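User: quick one, sequence for these tokens?
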């Protein structure tokens, strides 16, 4: 439960910071819009990296942690089947790896999208004036192995939780 609260707090703070940045720095927003108009593919890269992965963080990080805690509560309190031994270890592996993995994957790709967006800006506005291909090659691809590793950790964590659940659920 506390993981869901922590993820929710982080998402709320970062969402508010993003909103404040967009409202407080209209020139930044104008540069962003101008870049998207000039290079339409840039809009896809930035919006996908920022909003899609922010939404993924909300769904898997916040809601996933909350549903996991509800499941563990249901199994132990309502059904009266306690997680002990290996099942308890698998439950902890689930909670740790899923939370670390999804936070690491989503926030890494969000940073990659932000950095890639800045590199697309014209040089007279603080960017490097790169093309979308240069950004993909020089910036975004640097983050792909990290995101892959984090998603692997997430998958291992979820799998461990599922196995722990089956072990505990099948107890008499």
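Assistant:
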């Amino acid at each position: 439960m506390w993981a869901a609260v922590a993820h929710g707090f982080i998402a709320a703070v970062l969402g508010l910071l993003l909103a404040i940045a967009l409202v407080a720095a209209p020139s930044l927003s104008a540069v962003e819009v101008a870049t998207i108009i000039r290079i339409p593919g840039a809009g896809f890269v930035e919006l996908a990296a920022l909003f899609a992965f922010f939404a993924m963080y909300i769904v898997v990080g916040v809601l996933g942690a909350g549903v996991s805690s509800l499941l563990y509560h249901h199994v132990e309190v309502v059904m009266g089947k306690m997680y002990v031994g290996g099942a308890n270890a698998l439950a902890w592996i689930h909670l740790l790896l899923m939370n670390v993995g999804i936070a690491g994957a989503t926030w890494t790709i969000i940073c990659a999208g932000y950095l890639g967006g800045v590199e697309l800006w014209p040089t007279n506005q603080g960017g490097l004036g790169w093309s979308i291909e240069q950004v993909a090659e020089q910036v975004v691809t640097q983050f792909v192995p990290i995101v892959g590793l984090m998603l692997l950790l997430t998958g291992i964590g979820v799998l461990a939780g599922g196995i722990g659940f089956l072990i505990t659920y099948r107890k008499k």
